[in-house]
Design a protein that fits this description.
Largest sheet: none
Number of strands: 0
Number of helices: 11
Order of helices and strands: HHHHHHHHHHH
Helix content: over 70%
Strand content: under 5%
Structural class: mainly alpha
Shape: globular
């Protein structure tokens, strides 16, 4: 009896995670496209940096406002959803795996499959569970992440008209291993990122629930003691904290993913095939040629995106999970 119940719970978490991830990704896609354009641009991404450095050419994108206008002018509104199909194909299984694994790990740690009981586990276990869940989800969905980055960064004229042509070209030129270019920095990034995101989310929820109990003099410890706005704030804070810490590794990942992509010269210098030997070489080269600023290219749209993305994901997950539980009984 226990096994079917656990299977149903895993399917419920996976479904709720997939739906919440898809909603979040679609809503925040414009910010993600701008972030990717900044991350793969080898030239400075701010006007101030251009003035301070003796550079032979100008930068395509020099700020969020300028980048937004430029993408809108050259590619129209659809340009802000470039790569959204592989992004959804990535984020839906990613989030599904992540939440399903996370719930299973928390169940093992707390000894109960009741979601309300998961807040009683140690904060350290919350961080570890989040990190391991992120690891499993990344390995399972990474090729879609790579395809999303390539389609979102190519600009106009397009290098690849669709996801299918990008997939076959990568396999033919780089082999199947090419679909996992940049996986190492991604795994190094995702464990602390997911750990921080889920760990801080649980921590913020504990603090908010304790505050609610003090204010309303109630002993309730369920998720329902938090309003949707409070869940939104907790998710927003968790997403922001995680992104600020892990952004440099995301930049390195993007550089590996677009190695050899023949973008139009107007987008600046290209990342040559095999430009970086490994993750540490990439970090060193970016730091040497672009400075600390290079490791934080795209941090503004990334942070602006991470906050609502984290908030929307967690709120959508909570409500979808509750809705599915009410339907399934």
């Amino acid at each position: 009896m226990e096994e079917p119940r656990q299977l149903r719970r895993a399917l419920l978490d996976a479904t709720a995670g997939a739906i919440s991830g898809g909603i979040s990704r679609t809503v925040t896609s414009p910010l993600d496209v701008i972030k990717i354009r900044f991350q793969v641009q080898l030239e400075p991404t701010t006007s101030l940096a251009l003035l301070r450095r003796d550079l032979p050419g100008s930068s395509k994108y020099t700020g969020m406002s300028q980048a937004t206008k430029e993408i809108l002018r050259e590619e129209g509104l659809p340009g802000f959803w470039r790569g959204n199909v592989p992004a959804l194909l990535m984020v839906m299984p990613y989030t599904a795996i992540q939440f399903a694994v996370l719930h299973k790990l928390k169940t093992l740690a707390s000894g109960s499959s009741n979601t309300a009981e998961h807040l009683s586990i140690s904060p350290y276990l919350s961080y570890i569970s989040g990190g391991l869940a992120g690891f499993a989800a990344t390995v399972g969905s990474y090729p879609f992440d790579l395809l999303r980055t390539i389609l979102a960064s190519q600009g106009e004229p397009k290098v690849y008209p669709n996801m299918r042509s990008a997939f076959f070209d990568i396999v033919s030129t780089r082999g199947f291993r090419g679909l996992y270019s940049g996986l190492s920095p991604t795994l190094v990034e995702i464990i602390p990122y997911a750990g921080l995101q889920f760990g801080t989310y649980d921590t913020f929820k504990r603090w908010t629930m304790a505050r609610n109990r003090r204010l309303f003099n109630t002993s309730s410890t369920t998720y329902h003691s938090l309003s949707s706005f409070q869940l939104f704030i907790c998710g927003l804070a968790a997403g922001t904290c995680a992104k600020l810490v892990c952004h440099p590794l995301d930049v390195v990942k993007k550089r590996f993913q677009i190695e050899g992509l023949q973008r139009h010269p107007k987008y600046g210098a290209r990342v040559d095939p095999h430009a970086y030997k490994n993750m540490f070489d990439a970090l060193g080269r970016i730091l040497q040629s672009e400075g600390w600023h290079g490791l934080y290219k795209g941090i503004l749209p990334s942070t602006i995106k991470a906050a609502p993305a984290g908030a929307v994901t967690f709120v959508a997950y909570e409500f979808t999970s509750d809705w599915l539980e009410s339907i399934l009984g």
